[in-house]
């Protein structure tokens, strides 16, 4: 099939590459000339494991092309819109990019083209975008809501092995065409109304975010009563009705999706006069989790002025370079406002982090360089590299062997194996080894 994908961000690019991998003829279009220039050369604008190899092989096979030229839309059977829908200051979704994309394509689409909205958009937006395009192009079009559920860091795997594909439609023939596009993936497909499809995306993200805030709330109780949240989460997760996924306690969820989507859903509910205090609580718990490590350090040190604090991890999660809504930003800002000197290291997010925190903190080129002479080490993102650290070696390089672990990277036996360590984590008893 001849497919165009508008937007070559985390979603558009992963989608375009995967659709070409399953045999479709895909043209990816973006307004960012620099991005398109690099993509044509096989250079990725983002860090996403596995994407570069697939990008190269599909460009070589002639199934994947990149352009800024909208004239390329003319012969496309399916046009997928995957541009950003960030959050506005007032809590609403910023639809300006998708509105612009709708206007951009209007002059080039054929009556037979099916417009597929993959961007996450508030309920009713597909209908609004359909009207916007129809007003511009002067004929009626078919629109499909096809929300995306991939996670950054595992985008290829998630696209190729999605738990489900949601197709929100009003025209059966258009829905069947999209089913045909996805057929090679052999995945479960759920057909719904357009509004239900839009709502499925927000409800899914809100549920997962609430699950995280729930386990974080339990972690805080565990700390108070002397229980261990890791055991509690494992015990809960074994119940199939609860499930083991998304029960990892920590310093809060970040990224470009959960924070914005829960806020937008909360806002939508309030527009309709619906009580959504559950979502408000999810957001508030998440905000307070981001302060936990600094609070623990303040209890331990009294004050942080003049202390050298190392932060390992900056990205909002491992295996991505994305800093959007990363808890590391709040932590770094709190530490520096309290007078601490912060040195950070991240395997992939340093360039993006420098753009946000460059004037506040220092950046090291390796773990060794970052931890040297530190008064304390904060673990902020659970990169594999950090989970596999040789703790005794790291601790020897520090001024004081003190770790505040925001992602519970180390099990009890690894802490006990250290000669001297003070180890503070989330929802687990503090551990002090070898210090009188
Ligand atoms: N990032 C994720 O993991 C993820 C997962 C599921 C859903 N989503 C949703 O998917 C959408 C895209 O997210 P993202 O993270 O990929 O965004 P992104 O910011 O990484 O990329 C958006 C891209 O769209 C391009 N763009 C903007 N206007 C355009 C236009 N008129 N024509 C062509 N290109 C245009 C931008 O230049 C940019 O390259 C959002 O609605 C998001 O909520 C994101
Ligand atoms: O048990 C957990 C799981 C995740 N997180 C945090 O939650 C955030 C989001 O993680 P994850 O869901 O793995 O990454 P995203 O790439 O943001 O993916 C989410 O957001 C996407 C955009 O909507 C959806 O497509 C995905 O289905 C949804 O998982 C990160 O900060 C994680 O550290 C936890 O704290 N505990």
Automatic annotation (TrEMBL):
EC number: 1.1.1.22
Pfam families in the record: UDPG_MGDP_dh, UDPG_MGDP_dh_C, UDPG_MGDP_dh_N
GO terms under biological process: polysaccharide biosynthetic process; UDP-glucuronate biosynthetic process
Annotated binding of NAD(+), by residue: 30, 35, 85, 120, 260, 324
Catalytic activity as recorded in UniProt: UDP-alpha-D-glucose + 2 NAD(+) + H2O = UDP-alpha-D-glucuronate + 2 NADH + 3 H(+)
Pathway: Nucleotide-sugar biosynthesis; UDP-alpha-D-glucuronate biosynthesis; UDP-alpha-D-glucuronate from UDP-alpha-D-glucose: step 1/1
Superkingdom, taxonomy of origin: Bacteria
Entry keyword Transferase: no
Record key words, sorted: NAD, Oxidoreductase
Similarity-based family: Belongs to the UDP-glucose/GDP-mannose dehydrogenase family.
Protein name: UDP-glucose 6-dehydrogenase
Species this chain originates from: Peribacillus saganii
């Amino acid at each position: 099939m001849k497919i165009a994908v508008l937007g070559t961000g985390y979603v558009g690019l992963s989608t375009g590459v995967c659709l070409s991998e399953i045999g479709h003829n895909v043209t990816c279009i973006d307004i960012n000339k620099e991005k398109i220039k690099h993509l044509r050369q096989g250079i990725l604008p983002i860090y996403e494991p596995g994407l570069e190899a697939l990008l190269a092989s599909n460009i070589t096979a002639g199934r994947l092309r990149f352009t800024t030229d909208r004239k390329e839309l003319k012969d496309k059977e399916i046009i997928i819109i995957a541009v950003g829908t960030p959050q506005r200051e007032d809590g609403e979704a910023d639809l300006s990019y998708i509105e612009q994309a709708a206007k951009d394509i209007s002059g080039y689409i054929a009556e037979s083209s099916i417009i597929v909205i993959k961007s996450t958009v508030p309920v009713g937006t597909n209908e609004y975008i359909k009207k916007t395009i129809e007003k511009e192009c002067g004929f009626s079009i078919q629109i499909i809501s096809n929300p995306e559920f991939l996670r950054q860091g595992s985008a290829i795997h998630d696209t190729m092995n999605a738990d489900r594909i949601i197709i929100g439609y009003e025209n059966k023939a258009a829905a069947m065409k999209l089913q045909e596009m996805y057929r090679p993936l052999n995945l479960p497909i759920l057909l719904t109304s357009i509004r239900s499809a839009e709502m499925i995306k927000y409800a899914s993200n809100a549920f997962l975010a609430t699950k995280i805030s729930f386990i974080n709330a339990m972690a805080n109780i565990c700390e108070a009563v002397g229980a261990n949240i890791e055991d509690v989460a494992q015990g809960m997760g074994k119940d199939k009705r609860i499930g083991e996924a998304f029960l990892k306690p920590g310093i809060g969820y970040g990224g470009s999706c959960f924070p914005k989507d829960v806020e937008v859903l909360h806002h939508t509910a309030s527009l309709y006069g619906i009580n959504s205090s559950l979502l408000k609580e999810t957001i508030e718990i998440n905000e307070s989790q981001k302060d936990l490590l600094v609070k623990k350090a303040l209890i331990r040190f009294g004050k942080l002025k003049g202390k050298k604090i190392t932060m390992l991890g900056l990205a909002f999660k491992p295996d991505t370079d994305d800093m959007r809504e990363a808890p590391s930003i709040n932590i770094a800002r709190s530490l520096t406002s309290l007078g601490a000197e912060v040195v950070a290291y991240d395997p992939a997010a340093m360039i993006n982090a420098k753009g946000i925190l460059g004037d506040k903190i220092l950046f090291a080129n390796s773990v060794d360089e970052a931890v040297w002479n530190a008064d304390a080490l904060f673990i902020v993102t659970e990169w594999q590299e950090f989970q596999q650290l040789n703790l005794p070696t790291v601790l020897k390089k520090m001024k004081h062997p003190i770790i505040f672990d925001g992602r519970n990277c180390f099990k009890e036996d690894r802490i006990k194996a250290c000669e001297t360590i003070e180890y503070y984590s989330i929802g687990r008893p503090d551990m002090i080894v070898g210090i009188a």
